[in-house]
Structure formats: structure tokens, C-alpha cells
């Protein structure tokens, strides 16, 4: 049996241990971790990050800066794009198939058939992997919310950070921005400094109030730190630092906020040994696939006429739509056409509305092999109501072919709406 086949088998078994894909609780992972010898208590300093938008990009910036400074970094993120192994980075390297199989098997054995969600048991496996490999720091991304997220089992992180909060996952986290913010605020802990990025007023008020209640030092965007663009560069300012830095490698104005959040985390950690040179090199070399990423080679790229471009973005909520719309408004030199696939659980109108004025057409598809995909007809109905020229396509390839056939000048094609869709695109393009 190959490593890949063995991995697929164990991941399949773990998905069957709980009837619900999502059932927020800390009790089950607490019990499992105790059986595993509490590996979460033996980790290097942990940075715990929650939020709706920008978590992954902030983590990518932090990792790149730490590694530019010579530090060994563990990282846990979700979901993955193509391969589950992407979720776990051990001291700078994606976990090997053999290592992942081992920690998953150990976790499955310790769980002994008890009910536990897929995310909970795989998070326990990640902690087991982290505890076995020396590193200088752990960067931990919440999966959903914060209060009852499996990652919130860490009792005393070195730092927490909360990126911009938007309406998403309302059926789990609450039907208002304030309720969602309260769930995410719960990663803030007494005596642990907390960095807060740019927020809507309601969310910010909730985060500030919770920080005051639990007794944590909050480092707030707009009050304690800020960023601004300056003739091709960007500036990070606080009472202690004034850095003029090159724009980060990740594209889009919203990435300035995310890069600033990463630098604010460094400041609150007290990492005086991380030089401005390391920050510059980290920002320049950050890689985070699927976040307003241009594909520059591969089969899909090769199918395009000269001077055409294809871009990918996994955003899928109102905040992501607003950030993406802002970027599209600056793309004036070429028409932009969208290929959109989304999950039926998302707020389709709220994502598409900011994009509608900035796009020449939207081609709606269903996400392959995804049972929760929104119907292409449902997506098209929303786009049509927004006044956009809309089409329904069988798949990504046919959508691209249709756009090329109808558009006579060089254009941009942006595939967006879901990280699950982007995983499919990467496979098509290889």
C-alpha cells in the first residue's frame, strides 16, 4: 500500500467518527489530547490567530519574516487547497506523508472509536507532530470561530491576533457581526497580548470590551498601530516604530493591512532580534496560494491567447468581496471576466455585489465533486439581479473558452468564490 493510499484510508475513517462535519466543542479534543500525553502543553511559543478574512495571509507574512530571521516555524492552517499535508508545516517543511500517517494513526488509536469531528482529531494529530520536532514558534489558525474551536485548547499562547471580521458561518457563529466577533474574541486570554487588525465599529467594540473583561493588553489598529501607502511603498507606524517598507509580494490593497498586522504581532511579541532586513525580506518572499494569485504557467495558462491573464482568489464572503472589488476597480487597462463557483452556505449576494460594477461578465459554474456547491443557476440569478452580463457554464474550461470566444481584446479572467474551487483549478492547471 502506498503512503498516499494509506493516508486517504485513514482520513476517510476519521471523517466517519462523527455524524456532523462541524460540531463545535472542546470536550472531545480535551479527552483525546489527554490520552496522547497532552502534546499541546509542550509546544514552543504559540501565536493564535482568528478572524474572518486575512488570517492565512497574515500567517504567511509572519512565517516568511520569522524564517528570514533564521527561526524554525511550525504552522497549522485550514482548509488545504490540493493535499491535506499542506495544513501542517513542521519547522518550515510541509509534513511528510509517512509522518502524517503516523500521527493520524496514533490519534485514531488513542481516540478508540469515540465520537470526534474530523477537524478535532486532525488538530490533535498536528499538535502531536509539532511536539515531536524542535521549533522556535508555532503559528496556529482557528478553523471556525474561536470560543469552541479545537485550536482554542491552548491555555496560554504567547500572543493572539484577530484579523478583520465579516459575516460568515452565521449558522454556527451567530446571525450578527457582534455575535460573530464575540465568538472570535474568546481566543483572547488573561495576560496574553492581543493584536487587533482593522475592524468594523461593532466588531471592534466587542473585541475591546472582551479584552478589558478578561484582562489582556490589546494592540488596536488605528489607535496603537496603523499602515499607509507611500509612493510605491507602505509605512507601518506605532509609538515605537516607524518603518517604510516595500509593498508585500501578495497582491491587493488589503494585503497592506495583513502585512501590518504581522508586523504588529512582532512588535507585541517583543521580537527585537528580528531586524528590519528580515521584515523586508519576509514581505518580499511571502507565498500564499489562491489569494489574488496570478497563474503564470501551466495548462490553463497555455490555453489563453497572447496578453490574456488568469487570476485566482478564494474569498467567499462580504469582506472578501469588498477587498476584491477594491482591487478590480484599479484594473482599468483590461476588461475583467469572472468565473464563479461557491458553496450554497455562503452569502452569495454579499460577495458578488461589490464585484458587479467592476466586471464585464460573470460565468457561473458548480464546484466539481463538492456536494454543498451552489447551483450555477442560483449564482446566475443573483448576478443577473445585480445587472451583470451572466452565463452558466458546464465547467471551468468551458467558461474560459466562452469568455475568449466572445471577448475580442486581451482580458483578465478571475476564478473566485471558494477555496474548494481553487483546489480543482490547481489540478486542472498542472
Q: Helical amount among residues, as a percent range? A: 25-40%
Query: Overall pLDDT, averaged?
Result: 93
Instruction: Give me the CATH architecture of the largest domain, please.
Output: 3-Layer(aba) Sandwich
Strand content: 15-25%
- Strand order of the main beta sheet, please? 4-3-2-5-1-6-7-8
Give the helix tally. Answer: 16
- In CATH terms, the superfamily of the largest domain is Mur-like, catalytic domain
Q: What number of structural domains do the residues give?
A: 2
Low-confidence stretches: none
**N-end to C-end Cα span:** 25 Å
CATH class of the largest domain: Alpha Beta
Q: If you compute it from the alpha carbons, what radius of gyration comes out, rounded to the nearest whole angstrom?
A: 21 Å
CATH level-3 fold name of the largest domain:
UDP-N-acetylmuramoyl-L-alanine:D-glutamate ligase
Instruction: List how many beta strands DSSP finds.
Output: 17
Largest sheet data:
8 strands, mixed
What general outline do the C-alpha atoms trace?
Answer: globular
The assigned structural class equals alpha/beta
Structure description:
The protein is an alpha/beta fold. The chain folds into 2 domains: 283 residues, UDP-N-acetylmuramoyl-L-alanine:D-glutamate ligase (3-Layer(aba) Sandwich); 137 residues, Alpha-Beta Complex (Protein-Tyrosine Phosphatase, Chain A), CATH 3.90.190. It is 40% helix and 17% strand. It contains 16 helices and 17 strands. The strands form 3 sheets. Strands 4-3-2-5-1-6-7-8 form an 8-stranded mixed beta sheet, sandwiched between helices. A 6-stranded mixed beta sheet has the order 12-13-17-14-15-16, sandwiched between helices. Strands 9-10-11 form a 3-stranded antiparallel beta sheet, with helices on one face. Helix 8 links the parallel strand 7 and strand 8. The radius of gyration is 21 Å and the shape is globular. The model has no long low-confidence stretch (mean pLDDT 93).
Amino acid at each position: 500500500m502506498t503512503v498516499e493510499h494509506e493516508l486517504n484510508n485513514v482520513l476517510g475513517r476519521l471523517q466517519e467518527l462523527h455524524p456532523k462535519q462541524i460540531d463545535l466543542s472542546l470536550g472531545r479534543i480535551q479527552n483525546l489530547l489527554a490520552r496522547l500525553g497532552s502534546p499541546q502543553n509542550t509546544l514552543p511559543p504559540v501565536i493564535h490567530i482568528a478572524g474572518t478574512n486575512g488570517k492565512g495571509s497574515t500567517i504567511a507574512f509572519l512565517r516568511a519574516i520569522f524564517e528570514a530571521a533564521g527561526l524554525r516555524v511550525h504552522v497549522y492552517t485550514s482548509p488545504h487547497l490540493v493535499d491535506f499535508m499542506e495544513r501542517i508545516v513542521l519547522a518550515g517543511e510541509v509534513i511528510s506523508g509517512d509522518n502524517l500517517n503516523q500521527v493520524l494513526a496514533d490519534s485514531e488509536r488513542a481516540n478508540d472509536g469515540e465520537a470526534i469531528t474530523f477537524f478535532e482529531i486532525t488538530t490533535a494529530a498536528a499538535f502531536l507532530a509539532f511536539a515531536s520536532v524542535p521549533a522556535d514558534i508555532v503559528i496556529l489558525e482557528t478553523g471556525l470561530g474561536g470560543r469552541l474551536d479545537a485550536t482554542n485548547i491552548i491555555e496560554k499562547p504567547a500572543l493572539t491576533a484577530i484579523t478583520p471580521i465579516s459575516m460568515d458561518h452565521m449558522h454556527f457563529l451567530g446571525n450578527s457581526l457582534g455575535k460573530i466577533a464575540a465568538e472570535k474574541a474568546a481566543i483572547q486570554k488573561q495576560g496574553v497580548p492581543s493584536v487587533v487588525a482593522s475592524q468594523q465599529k461593532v466588531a471592534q467594540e466587542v473585541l475591546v470590551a472582551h479584552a478589558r473583561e478578561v484582562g489582556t493588553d490589546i494592540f488596536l489598529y488605528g489607535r496603537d498601530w496603523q499602515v499607509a501607502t507611500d509612493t510605491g511603498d507602505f509605512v507601518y507606524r506605532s509609538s515605537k516604530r516607524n518603518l517604510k517598507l516595500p509593498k508585500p509580494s501578495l497582491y491587493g490593497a488589503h494585503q497592506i493591512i495583513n502585512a501590518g498586522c504581522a508586523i504588529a504581532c512582532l512588535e507585541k511579541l517583543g521580537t527585537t532580534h528580528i531586524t528590519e532586513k528580515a521584515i523586508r525580506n519576509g514581505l518580499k518572499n511571502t507565498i500564499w496560494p489562491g489569494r489574488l494569485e496570478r497563474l503564470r504557467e501551466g495548462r490553463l495558462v497555455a490555453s489563453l491567447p497572447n496578453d490574456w491573464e488568469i487570476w485566482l482568489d478564494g474569498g467567499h464572503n462580504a469582506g472578501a468581496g469588498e477587498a476584491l472589488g477594491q482591487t478590480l476597480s484599479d484594473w482599468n487597462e483590461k476588461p475583467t471576466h469572472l468565473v464563479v463557483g461557491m458553496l450554497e452556505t455562503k452569502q452569495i449576494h454579499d460577495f458578488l455585489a461589490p464585484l458587479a460594477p467592476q466586471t464585464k461578465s460573470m460565468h457561473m459554474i458548480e464546484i466539481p465533486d463538492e456536494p454543498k456547491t451552489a447551483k450555477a443557476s442560483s449564482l446566475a440569478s443573483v448576478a443577473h439581479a445585480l445587472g451583470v452580463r451572466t452565463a452558466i457554464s458546464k465547467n471551468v474550461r468551458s467558461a474560459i473558452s466562452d469568455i475568449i470566444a466572445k471577448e475580442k481584446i486581451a482580458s483578465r479572467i478571475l476564478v473566485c468564490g471558494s477555496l474548494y474551487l481553487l483546489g480543482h483549478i490547481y489540478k486542472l492547471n498542472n
